[in-house]
Structures are given as structure tokens and as C-alpha cells.
Amino acid sequence: SVIDGASDAVAATVPSGTVGTGPTAIAVNPVTGKVYVANESSGSVTVIDGVTNNTTNVPVGNAPTAVAVNPVTDKIYVANNGGGTVSVIDGASDAVVATVTVGTNPAAIAVSPMLNRIFVANQGSGTVTVIDGGIGNTTPVGVGTSPADVAVNPVTNRIYVANQGSGTVTVVDGATNTVITAIPVGTDPTALALNPVSNKIYVANNSSDNVTVIDGATNVPTTVGVGSSPAAVAINPVTGKIYVANFGSQNVTVIDGVTNAVAATVSV
What we know:
This is SMP-30/Gluconolactonase/LRE-like region domain-containing protein. The chain is an all-beta fold. It contains no helices and 26 strands.
């Protein structure tokens, strides 16, 4: 479904059958307006033209579960969880131009456009694979147990990795590919989001029903109670508000980014 951001109404629906089976992740290139949907069950990425809603299906690797875009190079990176690879799609031709071997069970992926580096969280091997977007070389970086999500701060070039198994967030220097520190958070951290304006990182701890707020300047964590089984988190960098999707309680917690206080709970 395509939602109009001004009216919050469904503006269009991409017809059933034009997207692959088991769509699990989505990313947008703000420059070209193309939308990329990773279809886990059909081993493909559906490319949606943001103007016409026409679609193109691109075969990738086994069980693609995450996708990220570099809008500067117009390259799309797809983490294939079942194959331990990343497919690189050229945004102009909608064709796979490279396949890069990474760690076991790549579950999340993030891009630093400034560095032209791609960071892949490998849940099965407890590593992050750093891909040089220019020459394709890879560097493995050891992190915590079962890394489930990764985010990049494009201002500080720090990378944050949520380690689901060890209850920590690993901070990596994106320029040197070295670990700076590991920050204790809640239980079962499964998702994180980053506000580059405030330099704060928000970690959804699925089994402890809270969000850890990390100050990116000091690496000091603060805990905020939310709903049951928080599974996803998103940020509005303009308003500074944080939105936490609570799977267990079927609601969304809204956090004030300035005070770290819960501003509202919205039933969904």
C-alpha cells in the first residue's frame, strides 16, 4: 500500500502478485524515488517505480531479509540470510552487478554514503562484515552474540549494533572498523534507530519491555519503559519524537526525544 504522507490516506495499492512472496523489508532511494522490497520466500527484490508504481522483480540470493540503499552511488544492498551473501543491485539498470560473501545468517544491513561502506550484521557468526562499496573488499568485525540490527550515524561515522543474544550494543568506528565499546542495554535487543541530529540511539529491548536511549557523545544509557514486547522503533528527526511498536500490547509508545519521557501511547 502507498500512503499519502500529507493526508495519511492510502493513495494507491501495488497489485497483488507484482511483489514477490514473503516481503520482509523495504527501503527507498530518495533521489530516484524507487522503492525496494526484499521478498524472503521468493528470493527476489521487487523494484517499485515511485511515480508510476510499475514493478520489476530482480532475483537475488536465498532468503533476502534486509535491504539498504546508497543514494550517492545508486547501489542497493540486499542481505541474503539463507546464503550468507549480499547482492549488489545497480539502481539504474535494476540488475545484480555483484554478490559478496559475508558471515552466517546476515540479518540487517546499513550504509554509510559518506564512507561508501556497507555494514552487515551476521546473526549466526556474531560479526559485522564491512564492505568497501568502491572495490568490494570485506572486513569482519567481531561484535556480540546474535547481532540483530545495525545503524550508522552519518555525522560521527559510528556504527551501532544491537546484539540480541548478549544484551549489548557494540559501537564501531566506521573509519577504522574497530570496536570502541560495548554498552549494556535491556534483554533481547532486536531493533534500533538513530537520530543524527541529537546523536541519540534508541534500542528496543523485546523481552524487558523497555527502550534504552544511548547518548552518542558519552555512550551513557538511559532506560525508558514502554509496552509489551517492543519489536521496532522509528524516529522523526524533525519533531524529535520516537515511535516504538509494541508487538505484545498491540500499541505504539511515543517518546519525547528531548526529555526521554513517554509522551503518549497509541492503540493500533
